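Here is one chain, start to finish.
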Amino acid sequence: MKPSNELVALFRLIDDPDEDVYNVVSGRIIDYGKKIIPNLENLWENSISLEVQTRIEHLIHRLHYSDLVQDFKDWNNSDDQNLIAGAILAARFQYHDIKPSAIFIQIEKLRKNIWLELNNYLTPLEQANVLTSIIFKYYQLKGGEVKYSRLGEFCINKVVETKNGNAITNAIIYQSVCELLNVNARLINIPNQMLIAYYHSDFETDLTMIKPQDQINFYVDAINGNAFSQNEVDSYLKREGLPNSSAFYKPMTHGNIIHLLLKEMAKCYFAPHHQYKRDELNEIGDMING
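Its structure:
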């Protein structure tokens, strides 16, 4: 935008050593909204002061954050909480210039390739084998346990680009494809695991059931597509000293999943000077409806 006299004056005061003055100046700059970002970027490029550049970076971050919070509010209040769209919003915290269309194109390619191999006569296990073959072998999506030193593995744009995700982002891709194909498989909340439960074809995922595990055929590990039986899940819970709670087997909502993604992603900002980013992600996570 064309800088006004007021904006020129505000920019000159960005380096004011008086914190009270700077707080007033920064607040007024933030009031301009996202349209001011190109001006701030230009100012950053032409500044020789590290302190000024740092302040400009914080101002740009605050502007992006304010915009992101509003978009998350809209997503949270939407009747259609698209799971991939929610993951894109989370990734935008770190990568402001994400192009959602490129990500949706890749998900659609996955859907189409899997759809060509599916038919109405396949058993749920045969369906799972098709998904595993396409997603993890043909598409070559790789995954591992959550590691907070690998921020990119929490960001759907980088996962699609590099084919390297983690248990959470792989689960988001897997479930999203299942939803597009009307495969009755959903992520469940087994502690310290990201398992996709393949429910019976007549199971309504929004019904409250006393024992939803009785409506599950088997489980798939979202990291690599390996299948597990109920006995294996029972053994895991027993080994970990965990109760075999029916709550573990209820499908997670899209809000649950994005809430988890944000909370886990926040832990990537473990450096003291990134405390504010960790706090911001946790604040957004607390805002998301489960």
